[in-house]
Amino acid sequence: MARLADYFVVVGYDFDKRASSESQGQILQRFPEKDWEDNPFPQGIELFCQPSGWQLLSERKPPTFFVAVLTDINSERHYCACFTFWESVGDLQTQKSQPREAVEDEDHGIVQPTQLFAPKSLVLVSRLDHTEVFRNCLSLMYTVHIDHLNVQLETLIGNLLTCIIPIAGGSQRTITLGAGDRQVIQTPVNDSLPVSGCSVALLFRQLGILNVLYLFCAALTEQKILFLSSSYQRLSDACRGILSILFPLKYSFTYVPILPGKLLEVLSSPTPFIIGVNSFFRSETQELLDVIIADLDGGTVTVPECVHVSLLPEPLLHQTKTVLSMVMDPELQYADHAFPPTSIQSSALKIQDKEIRAVFLWLFAQLFQGYRWCLHIIRIHPEPVIRFHKAAFLGQGSMTEDDFLNKVLDGMAFAGFVSERGPPYRATDLFDDLMANDMERIKMEEGHPCKILKHIKELAEHLFKNENPYPSVAMHKIQKPTEGSHLRIHQKIFPSLDEVAVQFRIDHAASSQKSAPPVVKPEKKCLVLSGPPIAAMVDRNGSALANSARRLEVVRNCITYIFENKLLEAKKLLPAVLRALKSRVARQCLTQELNLHAQQNRAVLDDLQFDYIVRMMNCTLQDCSHMDEHGIAAALLPLVTVFCRKLGAGITQFAYSCVQEHSVWMNMQFWEAMFYSDVQNHIRALYIEENESCDQQDNGEQMPGGKSALEIAAVQRRLWPTLCKEKQLELVQKEESTVFSQAIHYANRMSYLLLPLDTSKNRLLNRSGLGDVESVSNSYVTNSIAGSMAESYDTESGFEDAEGSDVANTVVRFINRFVDKVCTESGVTNEHLKTLHTNIPDIVQMHIETLEAVHRESKRLPPIQKPKLLRPSLLVGEELVMEGLRVNLMSDGRDEATGGVSGGLALLPAEGAIFLTTYRLIFKGTPTDPLVGEQVVTRSFPIASLTKEKKISFPAQMEPYFGEGLQLRSCTFQLMKIAFDEEVSSDLVELFRKHLHKLRYPQQVQGTFAFTVGQSAKTLVETKSKEKNQSLKTLSKNLMKNAKKTIGRQYVTRKKYTPPTWETRSGAQFATDEDDISISEEPDQSSLTLSSTIKSSDRQTMSNVVERACCRDYQRLGLGTLSNSLTRSKNEPFRISTVNRMYTVCRSYPGLLIVPQSIQDPTIQRISRCYRHNRFPVVCWRNSRTKAVLLRSAGLHGKGVAGFFKSPNAPTAGPSQTDSTSLEQEKYLQAIIKSMPSYSEATGRNTLSGFSSAQMSSSGKWGSIRVNNRMSSYNPDIGTRLAAKDIPPPQANGGPSETHFLRQQRAYLYIIGDKSQLKGTKQDPFQQWEVVPIEVFDIRQVKNSFKKLMKACVPSSVSNESNMTFYRCLEDSEWLCLLHKVLQVSVLVVELLDSSSSVMVSLEEGWDITTQVVSLVQLLSDPYYRTMEGFRLLVEKEWLSFGHRFSHRGAQTLASQSSGFTPVFLQFLDCVHQIHLQFPMEFEFSQYYLKFLAYHYVSNRFRTFLLDCDCERIELGVMYEEKGERKNQTVYKSVWDYIDKLNKKTPIFFNYMFSPEDGEVLKPYSHISNLKLWDFYTYETLSEGPSYDWELVHGRYEQPDESDRQDTASQKSQRKIVWPCYDNRSKVEPDAITKLLQELQSLEVELGLVSEKWKDTWDKIKATQRTETKLESRHSLFSPLLLSSNLSHQRRTQGMYLQESVGSSINLLESENIATSTPSGSMASGRRSTSTLYSQFQTSESEHRSLEGVLYKKGAILKPWKPRWFVLDKTKHQLRYYESKIDKDCKGVIDLAEVESIIQGTPSMGAPKNIDEKAFFDLKTTKRFYNFCAPDSHNAQLWIDSIQSCLSDA
């Protein structure tokens, strides 16, 4: 029984604290005035009466009512029902004002302000939530007051405060306040079920299903929730609704349905809450970044970005949504029915409310199914102590990784749930009944929404009856106020009540209650049933045991072989078992099998048996997840103290000494769960009769035929009140002794697994992650840990404080913390706890002494036989730096080598050795899997390509112990994760790392392998090697020294230059000769020619400069001629300038440069200062057709930006140095424009030459480049095209749009510059040149992108995260985006050059992106560069001579180590690879050629890609080799010489599809969808290592032995198995042409003939084909000699694209009579297009048509019969069909190899009419059934016989 209302309060407006119109509330009266003893008066009620603030209003508002909720310090909720009405301010102040003041006001005639109204609230405070009763009572009081009824308010209040009603029980009570009223109060049947009314249904109607589910999940996962509404009652109802659907959980955080405005700072609280706020304060809630806001008025829920709401697990979420929609909208499932039932309609609001609550009750039953089976009862007497085993619950339900359930189980609400519902003997409610009796029904109803809905309605009926036990009783009689009474002008104020009268009634009622006998209703307690266990629910689904039968069989067989001592069989199965143990079911099977053998007294094992068992245990523990690990470790814990081996007399080694390297043993939560589980078993055994305990010991609560621990506890709790005190004390002592004995037992167990075998190594205890040793599991006890003995010990968490102490103290501290925790919670006495703390150090010390003997004897065991180390093959000149160190090559994130998803051999882990040579890092070994042990695994990469080296640690998986580990990553997309064997000492590992670092980053470039090849490895490591190539250095010295003598003018010294020094220089004379060399300029060198500048003694030196790639290419392009006298022709527009021959103008440019004929050398020197690093514009290529030129330069220097592009408005006072430089720059551009034929042919165009000097000076610097309309009209077409703005619609597959984007009136010169540098540029008003600003990526972006690309292609570990998949990582790297940008710019430049406009590329420093763009432009525009010779020349010219910083970008030396590796050249090669894929017939070289360059440009095997410019190469003497060195050299210094040599031996670099067309301009698609990831990044051959060092991989295969040839001859067909990532497919499966050439060469050797070079053979074949083509009939378009190819989606030009994959033949040479197709947009009219070659693709060759004709074919389901032209091809063993006879495109192919039978058929529906039935026949294949119809029966029989003939021939 309880009071209906505890307090009645009158709250009014406080005029004394009024500030403007806002004030505070004050309590005018409260009844009773004294606090109740059991319920003190809550403070702050006046704030909640007016949550928006106490304000005066200008008009009277109607009365309002709402219920606020206050929570006291004891977490008790008080319901404050507030009834508010408004009274006139004048009437209120009349009582307080004096009459004299009023008279004075009237006398002075002051105008009264507008009448104001103040609020007044009548408040009821109660601990019961009867909202409607409170509303009626307060309304009645207001009616009595406003209508002046003849009833005293004191009587009503007194009766209300003395009304006593029951809290629960399903009874009804009629109450009256004494005003002729009557109300019937119905109490709920069970007070544990919340009373919701209609609040839940209203909440769903306001927010919708999905939004409420978000709020539901947010509340369960302890998020902050804020409701907004303009209605206070709606806020209260919404909060009540949320709490109702949380049942059976109870919300334990801040709960304020209505928060006053003055307390809004509560919203910044760090703890979770559910709060309601008026919409008036919406603006003040916008800054809340971690609060979920639900707007009840707008129906929205806003979740901040920083808040992650974990949703219900699937399929529960989907099922809940479905059932809720059926409840909310039952007509939905019948909406599409033609005849929907007429009786379907939504339930009443109250019923619907209960149905929704029933859905959530049904949801919680599924979430918490079987939870009682995971409860550990630690103590039964004197009070139950319950613990919940979270790990077991999640593991058994396969919900370990579910984020939502993990958060719910860790929350405060679930802690209270276990504390309240854990006891086994208590009163039960609807949820307990549902969990115990209906779980089987719920499982059966899955997937049947109608059955679920029926169940929901049954639950809703129970909920409705709980709230309304007498639904028919609704006899209320409450008098309402007269309508409009609140609008009366003259209203009396609410009177002051007589406190004495009210208090008298209260006292009188209290005295009568004391004399009456107390009403005590006995609480009904019973046994709480547990329901079905989790395991039964999971096994019924079959999900836990799916696809695991084979794995379990392998595990069982292996264990059986081990214990039967069949160790050879066990060794074969062991790798498969270790892989199978990744499955949870297999791990459980292992523990069960080991347990069976342990019970059979077979625990003492031999050494090998012991090793196998330990390996399986380690693998089992290692592959567990962080939660499932507890389940497996719990099963293994008793086993590791059972299995052992004998080491000597009285010395036994147990398995626990070999399985300690797992973090689970460091987890305090695991030990607590294990302890409580064992305590429960012993407590259970304590109460079982003696005869049962003998049969059922240690089988837990799930033992068949016996009672569970919870059932026994329920019986004991029922009997407890009937026991005498002596018996009660005896039971308490027995339980306490049981817990104490288990604590001692676990102190021993923990010392077993925490103390390492070698106690001198404290490696286990100092591992990371040990700080969190406090339990995070749910603990619900009433005892305080503060009084435990833990205070006397160091209770700081973790072992960090023990690093300096010995092992014993560290372990003692950990065990002490455990003992303090569990014993305090389990109620162990202080005396026993002191005893434990005294004994623990002795236990640990005793075990340490035992381990010392075990460790000593284990060292005497014979070493395990390890495989012999395999030595690698070395290159000529490559030497070992260190002998092989025994290591294990571990698997990384690539699963191909581990037999993962793709299947195959388990090649990794592999056991072998790591070798460090002067050139490479090599691993060579064999797989640890004995089934593939015969394979040899090789993984290597050049030392110079090493990008990162770091130490790593390996857990014990395959072996008991591993030493240190290293992870080595290479920019050749290789990764080595090596674990050093325990025989490798730490000193050797450090020496290995030291040598590796010294070889990777030598002091100087001369320390790289390309220079030191052939030297002693010891000499290299000690950095005392002698210098070589003195003749080359003498050449470079003479070149620099003689050049100084030849310059006969006055020198202007710019800067003293000192060449880099290195330790390996020998002789003092060299240093003396090189000293004090000054690089000087010459004021006027333009008049000097090469011949007049250089003496005759140095002509040979300069001729070497002339022979460079630049000069050869200039002469090929006609950009300048060099006669024997080195003179130039004056008629040519360009000349070869020697101004930079001594590298004084620009150190990073070549010595010979192409400049306009009219520009003198002094002008060049002045112009160069405006550009970064003096890299001024020079011509690098000219279009042979349009004569447009391509120029390259660096970006403008900081000082040159203003002088070159910006024209200030203010005129300068006079000429200056800067002005003259600007004019010379303008003349330079003008000279380039004049060199173009299109300029000289144009008429009516103004030129800059017509400007007078006065005009030029008046407009400032670069006056001709100013803003005009053309800038805005043109740039959107070109500039923004690269900035991805206003891009014209591209063609399909990302191809460039039509060339209409180029205007009819083009500029002669376009300057491609960086957008950030060209900001505010001015344009040429006469459209002679135009600036195209583009956004280019920074070099740091390339570096970061490459790092991400390497991690994507070669991940270091396997990741199961959804955002770490391969394609996601590839996308995040943005590597393809960078390729797209480079290709896009290049294609634009190609289009401009092809449209007769010259282009100058002026980006960054001019040696990275500029080099990429100009190289790609020349490659796309000039077919010569697509040959081997031309590509070599292109790289030598644009990358080497023009100074790409290979040494700096490749971090080749110690000085450039900090800059890191930046693959600019690799990016260029990747772009070429993309173009090669799209145009495979335009390149003479193959894809392997590009991979070869990509590998060796970072390998440092050759000197080609060393150093940063030609000037540095000359200084070091590596620019030119003496001609005598090139003959018969064994060590190649140039990669080009090596490629030439290799190309003569093998066609590996040649592209057989090479069939170029003269003058073809390529325009590739550049969209990311058209780009492919280069297989160079992902391809690996573990059988031999990288295939780019040809001598190592292919040398031994060039000349096969005679025995091999005989075997090949005798066995013509031999099956080969090609393993992914192991075999070299190009060698195992060569293409058809390579194979024919190899066989031809082999036959020549057998016949004793001189083997002909492959190139000569190939040329003969082409010549023969050309002859046969000319003799072919002119009606035939195709040559009879066809070579097979396999092209897919290839094209030549922008306008030609093959949409389908075609497997056919291609004519190698063009026939003269092939008709040309329409030329593409990239070629001028009248030129032939290369689409001619692609038209040769066809699949209907006449010579393969064995039988052809028309057949009717029935289509697939619901498709008609159609006539098709069928072709039977006996050669290809195919049946093809076409649309018609003349159709060349095959519509479908039936492979005859798949045909099972061909039989006579029968006509089916839709078959052709008037045809004989015998004309039908059916063809059955392995894939489908074909129906055919011939024109007549004869033809049908002919087809049947022909197909049968093909099948029989096969």
Structure commentary:
The chain has 1850 residues and is α+β, with helices and mostly antiparallel strands. Helix content is 38%, strand content 14%. α6 (199-207) packs across α8. The radius of gyration is 46 Å and the shape is globular. The N and C termini lie far apart (96 Å).
**Over all CA atoms, what is the radius of gyration?**
46 Å
Strand residue content: 5-15%
Residue share in helix: 25-40%
Report the average pLDDT across residues.
Answer: 75
Task: Give the low-confidence spans.
Answer: 97-112, 536-546, 693-705, 762-805, 956-961, 1023-1101, 1123-1128, 1199-1218, 1243-1304, 1522-1528, 1596-1612, 1673-1743
SSE-based structural type: alpha+beta
- Overall 3D shape: globular
> Mind summarizing the main beta sheet?
7 strands, antiparallel
Number of helices: 61
Strand elements, count: 48
Give the distance, in angstroms, between the N- and C-terminal Cα atoms.
Answer: 96 Å
- This entry's quaternary arrangement is single chain
Spatial strand sequence of the major β-sheet: 27-26-25-24-30-29-28
